[in-house]
Amino acid sequence: MNSVTETPVAARIAECDIRRTGLLPEHVTAFRRQGVLAVRGLLTPQELADVQEAGRTLIDRAWSARSMDDTVWTLEPDQPDAAPVRIEYVVDKSRQIAMLAGHPLLLQIMEQLVGPNLIPTWDSMVFKTPAGAPRLPWHRDAGLYDHAVGITGMGRVIDAGIYLDPAPEDNCVWCIPESNYWDDERVTATADRLNATEWDTTGAIPAVMQPGDLLLHNILTLHGAPAVVGKQRRVIYFEYRPAEVEWQLGPHTEDYIGLKQQALRSCVRMRAEDPRFAGEEPFDYRPAETLRRWAGRPDVDTLRFAHEDHWRW
Ligand SMILES: O=C(O)CCC(=O)C(=O)O
């Protein structure tokens, strides 16, 4: 790893101990400024164990299927050295992960940051098995708008990563604070420079995480992760966007909003009906009246709404 030659704008990632303080205005301000926030202790030990089990099952299934259906591999899956590194649409593949998507504290945090019209967009598990995973080069996330900084610089399109395993400095996501406000030219030049060698963290800070923690990042924040072998790290990623932005600008079509609202409401209901969460106050989803696009729609029988079937661009 190269030494840090520029002083990063923040020496360490801003943190929130969610069960002790809730999300305070200073946490929101830190997230808006840095484009990243570590939320400690989102999951109870029991829920963490259940989601870890769900993650294990999905990865085991990927290894036995050796298919590219909703799964990203390091090489063609029939190659002996291939390893799976990402599974898409995990809410549809696991009841436990669907119930996680209905987590009231998670959804309250997202409502505070994204606004009342939040909708879930991407849901994936990104993971490193002991077989190894290549570095994730420095990047902003997908589904960027033209004039992205004007639309989402201050942070209402957010990726929420829920950690199932420890992420120490040599196996964690690194972020460049405040890069969520950079113009395209600076982002491209910086990413190109950092990606020119195997792993360069100049100007970046590590997001060291514990199992059960939540890492929030603005999709515009430049981030990357080093290559790793011999370690396991699994993260469930849920992305959220404001429905009014999706409605006007995409990237998905208008019908997608209602479908994803139905999916969100199903996840909340599934969790509320499960005896493991008895006594928990369910999330109260209250988008603006004009953006309650689920009204009058037939029930959905899937939680998988493929991006390419609802892509506007
Ligand atoms: O969890 C990681 O290693 C990073 C994932 C990531 O940046 C991505 O999938 O875009």
UniProtKB/TrEMBL annotation:
- Keyword list, A-Z: Dioxygenase, Oxidoreductase
Top-rank taxon of the source lineage equals Bacteria
> Which Pfam families does the entry link to?
PhyH (PF05721)
Molecular function (GO) terms listed?
A: 2-oxoglutarate-dependent dioxygenase activity; iron ion binding
| Protein name, entry field | Ectoine hydroxylase-related dioxygenase (Phytanoyl-CoA dioxygenase family)
